[in-house]
Design brief:
The protein is mainly β. The chain is built from 1 helix and 27 strands. A 4-stranded antiparallel sheet has the order 1-2-3-4, with no helix packed on it. Strands 5-6-7-8 form a 4-stranded antiparallel sheet, with no helix packed on it. The chain has a 4-stranded antiparallel sheet with strand order 9-10-11-12, with no helix packed on it. Strand 9 and strand 10 form a beta hairpin.
């Protein structure tokens, strides 16, 4: 009887030792997993572009590139996209547009009505208030360094001193101006809802109506290659082209049903478009080709250098080689 109790007690001890060992092993594994997670977080934070980034725009000015997005994210490159430097602006503003001026200085538009000025790779950025009473939606900077900001309720503002002071060029109408492009210092185009197009030939001193895009057309992206040729994109792969500076438009389509958010008009009547769910195509010689190796991410920004197409979107900032495709970008 006593012998039986000893055996039972020993079994309980052995079971207890096994339980303790199992708990220790589980704690050890948990610690390892915690270390792995912490290491993964640190590695992600060290990246110039993170998978949680929502990049909205990218611009190219020679070898200088800059992408901007939510939470004050700026990724810049001075070597054509080989390496990137990350900057996070104070206050985590919602940056929606990147622009470069003729002198190489940079601007980033904040959805809340500020324009940030800085230089490529710099951590020093200065914000300047735009005197808009409603949402601002797009910005551009001309070859002679004039800043333009457009937005809701016909808002249009320009600055000739780097954003210190602003001149109001708004129209008194309840309309959203969505896109602005200045391929030269004197020629510029604005597109907005209800298919509205405005054109200037004198650097923005005066604006006149261009040809309508169609009252049902909502232009989500626009780019003018020069004073003649421009492209506008919208929903369901829609693409409109002008060859007379915005006075008349021809409607065509990219080979995709997804909404398109960005477009670049390239040389030799080419184009690059990008949109939802990783949709991106290039047009060359009248033939559309999908851009390879893209993630299933919303692609919001496009820029083109002498050797690459730069695409920016959700957790994405990548270069796709394109041979000799060249675009004249703002």
């Amino acid at each position: 009887m006593l012998f039986s109790r000893c055996i039972a007690t020993g079994n309980r001890y052995r079971s207890g030792f096994r339980a303790v060992g199992l708990i220790a092993m589980m704690l050890g594994l948990a610690a390892c997993q915690q270390d792995d997670r912490m290491g993964g977080v640190a590695a992600e934070k060290a990246k110039a572009v993170r998978r949680t980034d929502h990049l909205q725009s990218v611009m190219a000015h020679g070898s200088q590139l800059m992408a901007v997005g939510a939470f004050g994210t700026i990724a810049s490159s001075g070597d054509g996209g080989k390496t990137w430097t990350r900057t996070e602006l104070p206050g985590a503003p919602s940056l929606i547009r990147a622009a470069a001026c003729g002198d190489g200085s940079l601007a980033a538009l904040d959805f809340d009505g500020k324009l940030w000025r800085g230089s490529s790779g710099s951590s020093e950025w200065k914000s300047m208030a735009v005197p808009a009473t409603d949402s601002v939606l797009d910005a551009a900077c001309t070859a002679d360094n004039k800043l333009w900001v457009i937005g809701a309720r016909g808002a249009m503002f320009t600055s000739a001193d780097g954003g210190k002071t602003w001149a109001d060029r708004s129209i008194q109408e309840d309309i959203q101006f969505l896109n602005i492009s200045f391929p030269t210092a004197s020629f510029g185009v604005v597109s907005g809802e209800f298919g509205r197009v405005l054109i200037t030939h004198d650097g923005g001193a005066t604006w006149s109506l261009g040809g309508s895009l169609g009252e049902d057309f909502y232009p989500q992206g626009m780019h003018f290659q020069n004073e003649s040729r421009g492209l506008v994109v919208g929903l369901f792969g829609a693409l409109l082209e002008t060859r007379d500076g915005g006075m008349t438009w021809t409607r065509t389509k990219a080979p995709v049903e997804a909404p398109l958010y960005g477009v670049i008009a390239t040389g030799n009547d080419g184009a690059v478009v990008a949109g939802a769910a990783g949709a991106a195509f290039s047009l060359s010689g009248g033939v559309w080709s999908p851009l390879p190796g893209l993630p299933m991410a919303d692609l919001r920004g496009i820029a083109v250098t002498e050797s690459n197409i730069i695409l920016a979107g959700t957790g994405t900032l990548m270069a796709v080689p394109v041979g000799n495709t060249v675009a004249k970008t703002n």
